[in-house]
Design goal:
This protein is of the alpha/beta class. It has a single domain (6-257), classed as 3-Layer(aba) Sandwich (Rossmann fold), CATH 3.40.50.880. It has seven helices and eleven strands.
């Protein structure tokens, strides 16, 4: 029987995407463990016991401090939690995925994530409203372990966020991030787009996913865990059985662990 490496399905008060995330990683061959931030802060759970973690989507602290800001500060301003996460990121055998609220949270941890200094900060959608729909994205060539062998794929995916605008703060930082881009919103001709509603938040160059130079830590605003099964697609090829195209992301992580 194959060993199932343990992955922490990380959540905070207000997070709502943890069950779907656990299901996706379980399908890919991981042993998904529900981990609340209070478990880490209270010392009941150690990230040292895991190969990876997934920071899930939702509305931590109701986004009252900004999307993902309160969650990030519960790590950065707590010495034990900060040391726990910093040690996890410094290991060479770990990986992490941040989706939606988890993406926003991890972007605020860039100071303790090696190679994340050029990541964007995620702020209010240019539409000034919450956006929830299917959109089309294209997987970009990148070092991300999650997108190994997937570059060039154009696939529909779910978005559900109010603060997904990738703010790089300067043209210099945006240019420095080019090699780290994993996903872009594209139009009906397959070109990166900033046009609403094809790009739901107005992010520059359609950017909606980033990774680190070694590819182990990735963040993205869309929700692959909400569309990893064939039946979660509004249409899918007749030859598809149970699994949808986005399951490969999670299988890639399992392949990387070995």
């Amino acid at each position: 029987m194959l060993t199932r490496p343990k992955i922490a399905i990380l959540r905070e008060q207000g997070v709502n995407g943890h069950v779907e995330m656990a299901a996706a990683f379980d399908r890919a061959g991981f042993a998904a463990v529900d981990v609340h931030m209070s478990d880490i802060i209270g010392g009941r759970v150690k990230l040292a016991d895991f190969k990876g973690f997934a920071a899930c989507g939702g509305f931590s602290y109701g986004d009252v401090l900004g999307a993902g800001e309160g969650w990030a500060k519960s790590i950065l301003f707590n010495r034990m939690a900060r040391d726990e996460f910093a040690a996890f990121f410094q290991r060479s055998d770990t990986f992490a995925l941040g989706v939606c609220n988890g993406c926003q949270m991890m972007s605020n941890l860039h100071d303790i994530i090696p190679g994340a200094e050029h990541w964007a900060h995620f702020s209010r959608n240019q539409s000034e409203q919450f956006e929830a729909r299917f959109v089309m994205v294209e997987v970009q060539p990148s070092p991300s372990i999650f997108f190994d062998g997937m570059a060039g794929s154009r696939m529909p995916i779910v978005v559900s966020h109010g603060e997904g605008y990738a703010d790089f703060s300067s043209p210099k930082k945006l240019q420095a991030a080019q090699e780290l881009i994993t996903l872009r919103y594209v139009d009906n001709t397959g070109q990166p787009t900033e046009t609403y509603p094809l790009n739901p938040n107005g992010s520059p160059q359609g950017i909606t996913g980033l990774t680190t130079p070694d590819g182990r830590f990735s963040i993205m605003m869309p929700h692959p865990e909400r569309i990893f099964r064939a039946v979660q697609n509004s249409w899918y090829p007749r030859e598809w059985q149970e699994n949808g195209a986005w399951l490969r992301m999670f299988q890639n992580a399992r392949k990387w662990v070995g």
